[in-house]
Write a structure and sequence with these properties.
238 residues, mainly alpha, Heme Oxygenase, Chain A, two-stranded antiparallel ribbon, 2% strand
């Protein structure tokens, strides 16, 4: 008798469909995001979101380093490592500032009227946001590396959100210096590239029913992480 964990999984197309079906649970549909894209948030609400979201931005390369530390596949590591460079950045020159996602988010914060100091020291970060971010990093460190890769597949839905957000900021929040919106522009290119690679990895490695279920569960967990963050921000600044 075939063990439950050895049952063959569904065809790759069906697995991809199951993963993409999580679009309905992505935080783009959260009431706070809907108000943001409708242009109804106050400057204090925008600043609160930016300051809290930084805790997540700062954790992304740590999460990716955890995936690398557990991944035995050199080909995957060679491609995955660029995610860390995308967020941590590389120096413009020997003594210059790093230019990556973290720096771009700090410039967004400054464009919104926040100081670097108050963003970097996390004084505005809500407990629920901190808990969710820590849970995500712990997941990447402790779960099988393919599941951690699957959890990153919220990037499948990110380009649409980024495009809507960028348009909303340019249209409604004109008090923000538009040079501070470069993070959103960068992710319009990076997110599709990264999600394509992650999807390739998950489809290639998740062949059994149990492995496919675990991948879908990992993506569901990540959707919960992002939604929990938005709940905490909404509660604090609504």
């Amino acid at each position: 008798m075939t063990a439950l964990t050895d049952r063959p999984g569904a065809p790759a197309g069906e697995l991809v469909d199951r993963l993409r079906a999580h679009a309905h649970a992505y935080h783009s549909t959260h009431p706070f995001h809907l108000r943001m894209n409708a242009g109804t948030l106050t400057p204090d609400q925008i600043r609160g979101w930016v300051a809290n979201r930084f805790a997540y931005q700062e954790a992304i390369p740590v999460k990716d380093a955890a995936i690398l530390s557990n991944c035995p596949d050199v080909a995957v590591r060679r491609r995955w490592i660029r995610r860390i460079l995308d967020h941590d950045g590389t120096p413009d020159r020997a003594d210059g500032p790093a230019t990556g996602g973290i720096e771009a988010w700090l410039r967004l914060a400054e464009s919104c009227g926040l100081t670097r100091e108050e963003v970097l020291d996390h004084r505005h970060v809500q407990p629920g946001v901190r808990f969710a971010v820590d849970a995500y990093v712990t997941f990447a460190r402790t779960r099988p590396w393919v599941e951690a890769v699957a959890s990153s597949l919220t990037e499948l839905f990110a380009p649409d959100l980024m495009a809507e957000r960028l348009a909303a900021f340019e249209r409604y929040y004109t008090w923000i210096d538009p040079t501070g919106l470069q993070y959103f522009r960068n992710r319009l290119v990076q997110a599709p590239r990264d999600s394509e690679h992650a999807l390739e990895v998950v489809v290639a490695h998740c062949r059994s029913a149990a492995e496919q279920d675990a991948a879908v569960g990992a993506l569901s967990f990540k959707c919960d992480v992002l939604w929990t963050m938005m709940d905490a921000i909404d509660h604090a600044y609504a």
